[in-house]
Each structure stands twice: as C-alpha cells, then as structure tokens.
Amino acid sequence: MKITKAVIPAAGLGTRLLPATKAQPKEMLPVVDKPVLHYVVEEAVKSGIEDILIITGRGKRAIVDYFDAYPELEHHLMKSGKYDLLEEIRKVTELANIYYVRQKSPRGLGDALLYAERFVGDEPFAVLLGDDIVISNPPCTKSLIELYEEYKTNVIAVEEVSREDVSKYGIIDPEEVADGIYRVKDIIEKPKIDEAPSNLATMGRYVLTPKIFDYLKRIGPGYGGEIQLTDALRASLKDYELYAFHFRGKRYDIGDKFGFIKANIELALEREDIGKKVRDYLKSLKI
Ligand code: G1P
User: Can you give the pTM of this predicted structure?
Assistant: First the structure.
C-alpha cells in the first residue's frame, strides 16, 4: 500500500525557547524566511505524502493561518506588482491537503498521536516531529518509506548523538542487519547515560503501522508522566519487528536555542540570494 498520509505533532509547549515561544508556536519561528513547519511539510511532500494531519494545541492558531489562503494579502501583492512574493504565498497553500486537530492538554507525543487514529484509518503512515528540520537528499521520510516497503513493519530513523546527550532522546539497542540498517532489540525513552544501550537516537522521523494505536492506548504514562511513543514501540517489540535507518544528513532541533541558531546560519549559507553575504559577514567577524 502506497504511503500518502503523514502526521505532524506540533503541540509541544516550546519551554526551551521561552520567552520567544510564549505567544508564538515554536514551529512557526522563522528559519531564514520560512517557518520551521514549512520545511517539515516540504520534506513530507517531497517524500510522496499527499495528506497531512497537524496536531496542534492551545496557542497554535498561527499554524492554521499560515497554510491558509490570505486573499487581502494576495490582492495587495498583485496590485503592487510583487508577483514573485504572490507566487510564494500561493505555493504555501497548495503544498498538500492539510488537516488539523487540537490536543486538549500536553500529555506527550504518544497522547498527541492518538488524535490521529481516525485520520490514519488502516494505512501505514509517516510521523514527522514539527520541531526538527531534517535536510537530506533523498529526504529522510522518503528513505523510511522505502525501508517500510521492504520490511512491512514499523521503521524509525536514528542518528548518533554524544554520550552526554543520550538522556534527551529515545535510544535503541541495535543489531546491524545491513549497511546502516538495524533490527531494534530494545528502545528506551531518555535513558540515564549508564543505562543507554547505544548512542543511536531516534530523531523525530517514523513510518508506523496503525497497530501502534493499540499499544499507545495500553501503555500508560512513562518518562515525565507523559504517554511516550517510544514506550508504545517498545511494547510492540514482542509482537512486531522494528527496524532503524541510520540517517546521515543534517538535523536541526529547533526547540533548542543552539539548534535554532545553527539552522538559521547553515540554511542561510546555502541560499542563493543571501548565502554569499552571510558567508562574508561571518568571515569578517574574525572570532
Ligand atoms: C521526542 C521523542 C524522543 C525523540 C525526540 C527526537 O522527544 O520522545 O524519543 O528522540 O523527540 O527529537 P522530545 O524532543 O519531544 O522531548
């Protein structure tokens, strides 16, 4: 079955970026001139996704406005002859079919995903966390979809993190079965450094079968008192295989101050319009 549906959880509070995220969703923070979520939706679309459910929460209305049409602005841009911008604005609304649902209270990624059950139906689907920009060619989600097609079971992307950082992620116990492909023997949400089975961390990209919902409903609160997707994947291991793909592109965690700054600098450097200016400026700082 072709994978055409994706779920983007974007309901988190963004506490690591306060006060910037007090009145604005972290997923809407600009990286150069596009909000974070735009990059995430683009990755999904480039991976063959047609229908996207964004799980929002309180204070996230700007997300819905962003992907909606804005006739007054379009009219203004048309009148003033700014056709390039007009084209850009229109493209945003045509990226994909986007649907929304609101998580009622922030009870974790697993709880947020439960809101996607009816949207997903009985099809496998992609999950892209809304605060990670992931850049690679082919897109990470596309590689995961291909891996799903091979193994027909849950698949996740992982990357190496430093030992000190393992307690920020879901960490896998890997058994390499092919170059850069692991069978996951165990997966633990945010383990202590000395309890982590490896330094391979799940990085916010998954392709899941709808059976995951049965486990999400069953597991109960885990790390931080929240319902964790990692725990549902762990519970599913006794019934289904889980495979991991070793991602080797770039990932920016926008929920983190340093990740946010890095994304802005590196993605600006790659831009045709301002890349050279930014490079010259950084060189001139002589730091
Ligand atoms: C979530 C997941 C975690 C994963 C991480 C990737 O954690 O629970 O397993 O490794 O995203 O960014 P969060 O960053 O929401 O705390």
Answer: 0.93
